[in-house]
Design brief:
Strand content: 25-35%
Number of strands: 23
Number of domains: 2
Number of helices: 9
Radius of gyration: 27 Å
CATH class of the largest domain: Mainly Beta
CATH superfamily of the largest domain: Capsule assembly protein Wzi
Distance between the termini: 18 Å
Low-confidence stretches: 1-115
Helix content: 10-25%
CATH architecture of the largest domain: Beta Barrel
Shape: globular
CATH topology of the largest domain: Porin
Mean pLDDT: 84
Largest sheet: 18 strands, antiparallel, barrel
Oligomer: single chain
């Protein structure tokens, strides 16, 4: 189709800065030739300068954009004789020690409530290296729009956070921040540059991985009672011997739609499990008779346990982007807390549930309200829980609001409601809405009636980059309480996970330290016998679990402990880490109590841009007299290799 002279003039003007930039950066003789040609086009004196615009190569396919991981190129040679040629693909300058990446245009307008981006985007799994990198970048004083307690992020929302801070990082002298930013931008390179070109279609196999785990010695696999040796692992099976996980993930994004699927084969050997007598004793703690249909129970690993070899969908989400929201259905991650070791309301300790979800993935400014509380994000999902027998097939919904009054302070409120289930009163619109809005305690008569709002658990969290050490120390806390409006209104009945993160040591900037404490052993009688945190003895007796594992913090019921991590960062996405963990469960809950001590060394290394190797060694010592007499110990050696094939991108 022919273009008007005015349109041709605008196009020539817009290409002029691009040509000049290409000449200055020395991207080759072909670019110099294009710049010469475009420079001949007339332009009005008052025409505004435009940012460089990436142009698709042809109309069918873009191999890679932008090329953050390029190697330096040699100086351009003399330009050949000008000749007609297709428009080149304009990529960022090759990284150097002085300029490790090329700045992207900033995303959005902080004074408006709606972002300009309309493309949908898949969630980044919460076990990705992206999150510790993003949280470290936040604690170094950047990515202010990263809401720490609302994960996962979508790929495009993460890109927008990085774009908002890229100019400050480029202008500063923090090499650690620059390394992290470069690695993250490379990870998200296929998302394109919002506001300048349409992303087009992104599709293909995103990852293929295998994890080989060898375990010697007896381990704990009882999330709801005694404890667990391995946690925050999507409820995967683990037993003494050789364990394996082999899987893949696919990513598909077009316009406002996205589809993400991650599936894997999981193998764990057979095990003896709990004796019948021990299973009955533990079941009585939950006030459940250990007899069919409550024998077996997913929350009690009664023996013998057969070898497990299932293929499972870890994540499978189809979503559409609408006005800053991702509206989705299927299996998706949730990590609703600022901590690294656990999240009190919701984590990936259990297998993901199937749910319908509405997630405000971009900060929203609400007139008048945001003057005081700042931008807000919210997340709602509704689904069913599996592995429950008393009652069976409960329903659950989670609702969270998070605010950012200042660039350095965030806080949020969350509520989880477990309700319904076969054998209990039916779910009605009245009881569903009551779970949202009712602020009163539920009495015994109401609990067993049609007006039962369900088992309600409320959470509160905050994070704060401390004054005078903004680029070093971040203080945060996570808390949850049962059947109270918020933990703030009932602090003595609440459970807590406070933490502090030193993002870099003065003079040793590659080293960081994180320390977190955690307790569900509250200071009142209501906690005795493990009857408060993550359980409701009246109706939802198998409580806050899915397929036997706690949905929230791995610490479990009526226990206390802590974790500490010391990490040396080899690069933006490579590290060596030492971790220590301690946990103690109260004796009034589990006869004799339980104690766990873990030491772990973890190495994350990249072999080229497409292969990631993660290996760790873990030693654990534990005591659980109700299960095994005397001190026990186990050792684990694990190696995971992940291959990242190149995603394919088609121009719109």
């Amino acid at each position: 189709m022919e273009q008007s002279p005015k349109a041709n003039l605008r196009r020539a003007v817009s290409r002029l800065p691009t040509a000049i930039a290409c000449l200055a950066l020395g991207l080759g003789s072909g670019f110099a030739q294009t710049a010469q040609t475009n420079a001949l086009a007339p332009a009005p004196a008052n025409a505004p300068a435009a940012a460089p615009v990436p142009v698709a190569e042809g109309r069918e396919k873009i191999e890679s954009r932008p090329g953050y991981a390029q190697q330096p190129v040699t100086s351009p040679q003399a330009a050949p004789t000008p000749q007609t040629a297709p428009a080149p693909v304009v990529t960022p300058a090759p990284p150097t020690a002085q300029v490790p990446y090329t700045a992207l245009p900033a995303y959005g307008n902080p004074e408006t409530s709606q972002p300009r981006d309309t493309d949908g985007s898949a969630y980044i799994p919460v076990d990705s290296w992206v999150y510790p990198a993003m949280l470290r970048l936040y604690s170094l004083g950047y990515v202010n729009t990263a809401y720490l307690a609302m994960r996962p992020y979508t790929r495009r929302s993460a890109l927008h956070m990085l774009q908002a801070s890229e100019g400050a990082i480029a202008a500063g002298d923090d090499e650690q921040a620059q390394e992290i930013l470069s690695a993250l931008l490379t990870e998200l390179t296929d998302e394109g540059v919002p506001g300048k070109t349409e992303r087009g279609t992104v599709y293909g196999v995103q990852s293929v991985y295998t994890r080989m785990m060898g375990i010697s010695g007896p381990i704990l696999v009882d999330s709801f009672h005694l404890g667990q040796t391995f946690f925050n692992d999507y409820g995967r099976p683990h037993e003494t011997g050789f364990n394996n996980v082999t899987g893949f993930s696919t990513l598909n994004e077009q316009g406002p739609f996205s589809l993400y699927v991650r599936g894997e084969y999981q193998h764990a050997p057979s095990a003896a499990g709990y004796t019948q007598a021990l299973a009955q004793q533990i079941s009585l703690l939950d006030e459940i008779a250990f007899a069919p249909p409550n024998d077996p129970q997913a929350t009690i690993p009664s023996g013998p346990i057969a070898a497990q070899n299932p293929f499972r969908l870890v994540e499978a989400t189809l979503s559409v982007h609408l006005l800053g929201h991702e509206i989705s259905g299927g299996k998706s991650d949730a990590w609703l807390g600022p901590g690294e070791g656990g999240a009190m309301p919701w984590s990936n300790n259990a297998e993901n549930i199937y749910s319908f979800r509405i997630n405000r993935v971009e900060p929203l400014r609400i007139k008048y309200l945001s003057r005081w509380l700042g931008p807000v994000r919210y997340d709602f999902f509704y689904g069913s829980l599996k592995g429950h027998t008393d009652p069976n097939d409960d329903w659950v919904h989670s609702d969270m609001f998070s605010f950012q009054p200042t660039a350095n302070f965030q806080f949020g409120f969350q509520r989880t409601v477990i309700f319904g289930g076969k054998g209990h009163e039916p779910v009605t619109l009245r009881t569903f809405l009551k779970g949202f809005f009712d602020t009163n305690d539920t009495n015994a008569a109401e609990k067993l009636s049609r007006d039962d709002p369900g088992a309600r658990f409320s959470a509160f969290d905050f994070s704060y980059r401390l004054p005078y050490v903004r680029n070093y120390l971040t203080l945060y806390a996570d808390s949850v309480t049962h059947d109270d409006l918020t933990p703030v209104s009932a602090p003595r009945r609440a459970a807590y996970r406070p933490g502090i993160y030193l993002a870099q040591f003065p003079g040793v900037r590659r080293l960081d330290l994180r320390v977190e404490g955690v307790s569900t052993d509250c200071a009142t009688l209501v906690c005795l016998g493990g009857s408060n945190s993550y359980v409701e003895n009246a109706v939802q007796k198998q409580g806050y679990t899915n397929k036997g594992n706690i949905l929230g913090d791995w610490i479990g019921r009526e226990a206390k402990g802590g974790q500490a991590w010391l990490t040396w960062h080899l690069s933006g996405n490579e590290w060596v880490q030492a971790e220590y963990l301690y946990k103690k469960t109260a004796k009034d809950f589990i006869a004799g109590g339980t104690t766990q001590d873990q030491f772990r060394v973890d190495v994350m290394k990249r072999i080229g841009p497409a292969i990631e190797v993660n290996g760790w060694f873990q030693h654990e010592g534990w005591k659980a007299p109700i299960y095994r007499t005397g001190a026990q110990s186990d050792n684990t050696v694990t190696v995971q290799v992940t291959f990242f094939p190149r995603l394919k991108t088609k121009a719109p």
